Amino acid sequence: MKGGNVQGLKGKQVLISMLALICVLFIILGLRRAHVSNVLFASSNNWQHFHVLQQLAVTNADVEAGHLHKRTECDYFKGKWVLDNGRRPLYSGNSCRRFLSAMWACRLTTRPDFQFEKYKWQPDDCTLPPFDSHSFLTKMRNKTIAFVGDSLGRQQFQSLMCLITGGTESIVADDVGREFGFDLRPPFSVRPGGWAYLFQLTNTRVVFSWSSWLGDVQVDNESDPFSSSALQLDQPASFLRDYVHKLDVLVLNTGHHWNRGKLLGNRIEMHANGSKELSKKLQVLRNAYNYTVQNVVKFMNNQIDHNPGLRVFLTTLSPRHFRNGDWDSGGSCDNIKPFGDPTNSKFLKDPVAEAAISNTKVQLLNITYLSQFRGEAHISKYSITGRNGTEDCLHWCLPGIPDVWNEILHAKLIEDRI
Ligand SMILES: *[C@@H]1O[C@H](CO)[C@@H](O)[C@H](O)[C@H]1NC(C)=O
Ligand SMILES: *[C@@H]1O[C@H](CO)[C@@H](O)[C@H](O)[C@H]1NC(C)=O
Ligand SMILES: *[C@@H]1O[C@H](CO)[C@@H](O)[C@H](O)[C@H]1NC(C)=O
Ligand SMILES: *[C@@H]1O[C@H](CO)[C@@H](O)[C@H](O)[C@H]1NC(C)=O
Ligand SMILES: *[C@@H]1O[C@H](CO)[C@@H](O)[C@H](O)[C@H]1NC(C)=O
Ligand SMILES: *[C@@H]1O[C@H](CO)[C@@H](O)[C@H](O)[C@H]1NC(C)=O
Asked: Which domain of life is it from (predicted)?
């Protein structure tokens, strides 16, 4: 019996080894074909071999690391601009009038040069799939994408509307602003709190909600046109709280409104903990900014825990290119050549956004670096009236740079399995 046992054990060992060999072969084949998940190994119920197999798999994955990396998580944000005379611009600034603000449609201004419309962004390690309206809408069937932020977010929203429609009226978009309360204009406001459109083709909604600071802004006296407002640094914008359950994709941005001039100009007082008595730390504007972004990202990260289908992106700071002065002191950008050396710039990274998303499920739309090269693509001194006034070296001509932000967003959405 003892001998038989030993014999049996040996037999088992041979069998196990053979099984293991077959498994290994399968796994090696599998690795060549597809991205391997650990689930595959867990299905092997021989735990001794599990360890060996895992090690083997790691070695194999290492061999193909470069390849796998490219397919699963390409860094779209590192690359260079190249001339693309074929396809660009992706829509016409003359014809996408329904969605473009005239002041941003540089084709409608006195601007004489349009070479800036002709470049595409080429990531170093992969290609950016061209924006495809059909694949975007199909991916977004029965879904809602919202941009919440300042005028740069609004530019990205307008760009997306033009990209989807191709700048023509051939794809029907219905105004559904009232679904998000945009028909109720804020008191004494010249413009609505946002815009929302429905593409009936796929039941897709595209939304923009103004929220320059991303925190909740409460007007102190709604019947007073000169009333002050409280910016609650620790409360997300009311749109986020009220409509988050309707959203599938959210793109947040803030940054350029965090200066004393903008706060004073809008009669905004910062609050935290329901009071305007701020800690020493929060009295420093940069800390208040950082604190608010941290809070909003935390809030959205909790929402993702409840609704794992929700995708949230935080767009990093869009660079300004004022030279020889600022926006209010004669700064200009009408002589900037494309692809100037950006290494002296303070706008290569966005530490506030980078810190906020770490350890969360919120992703960065890390557009700071790529946009930094394109100082010539701002509105600059040109206008629709023909007067060459104060230069705008903050907003971008459309079509233009925000189209590329959306191409990257499109790539990230269509490569997604959900
Ligand atoms: C954003 O992109 C820049 C340029 O490629 C890079 O230096 C930076 O590390 C990126 N940030 C993150 C958080 O990936
Ligand atoms: C979209 O919604 C319609 C109507 O509710 C439904 O019939 C369809 O299956 C949905 N499609 C997807 C892809 O969810
Ligand atoms: C709010 O503003 C209106 C108009 O200026 C003024 O008549 C009213 O007294 C104000 N209410 C309060 C509570 O300050
Ligand atoms: C809010 O109040 C709590 C408790 O009093 C305190 O611990 C916290 O630091 C306060 N937060 C801010 C931002 O002032
Ligand atoms: C923002 O706040 C977080 C949390 O307090 C901190 O870790 C981070 O260093 C801050 N970032 C900046 C740029 O101030
Ligand atoms: C505005 O600038 C353009 C381009 O430099 C120039 O041709 C035009 O004469 C200027 N217009 C005025 C009103 O100064």
From this structure: Eukaryota
